[in-house]
Amino acid sequence: MTSGSGGEKNMASLPKSPDSSDAAETTLHISALDALVNVNSIFSGVVFIGLAFSSNSISLVASGADDPCNPSSNTARRVVLCEVLAFAAYLLSSLIAQGLKLQLALIGAKKVVPNALVPINERFIRIGMAITAFCTAIGTIFLTLSIIFLIELRLGALSCPTSAWSKSAAIPLAVAVIIGVLSFLCTVLYAFFA
C-alpha cells in the first residue's frame, strides 16, 4: 500500500513532456499567421487592381468642370496615396508574420534536440501577432478609403446633393468594413491577451 502511494507520488513529481502542449500551441500560432498572410496577399492583389482602375478613371455622372458632383482634383491622388499606404501596411504585417513563423519553426526545430529546449517567449509572440493584426486592420482602412475615393471619381462626390449612387455604394462599404475591422481586432485581443 505504501509502495503504491509512493509510486503515485513519484509519477506525479515527474516533469510533464512539453512536446504535446508546446507543439499544439506552435501549430496554432503558425496556422494563425498563415491565415493572416493569406488575407494580406488577397488584399494586396486588390490594391493593385484598384491602382489599375484609378489610372483611367472616368466620371459617370459629372457633366462639366463646374458641376458640383465633380470630385476635387486631389481625389485621384488620394486614391493612389491610400492604395500605397494600404500596400505598405499589408507588406509590414506579412513580413512580421513571416518573421514570427520563422522564429516558431526554429524553436520547434531546437526542441528535437533534448538538451537544447528553448521555451517560446509568449510575450514576444503575442506582441508580434498584435502588431501584424493592427497593420492588417490599418491596411484595410486605407484600402476602404481608396475605394471610397474611387467611387467618388466614378459616381460623383459624396458631398453632392444628388449623388445617391455614390452614397449607396460608399456607406454600406464603410459600415461593413468598420464592423469587420472591429470584430477582427476584438477577436485578436481576446485570443492573444485573454
TrEMBL record:
Q: What is this protein called?
A: Maternal effect embryo arrest protein
**Originating organism:** Adiantum capillus-veneris (Maidenhair fern)
Using the record, list the residue span of the signal peptide; answer none if the entry has no such feature.
none
Highest taxon of the lineage: Eukaryota
Going by the UniProt record, its keywords in alphabetical order are:
Membrane, Transmembrane, Transmembrane helix
* The keyword Transmembrane helix is annotated on this UniProt entry: yes
Q: Note whether Ribosomal protein occurs among the keywords.
A: no
Residue segments, region Disordered: 1-20
- According to the record, the segments passing through the membrane are 42-63, 84-107, 127-151, 171-193
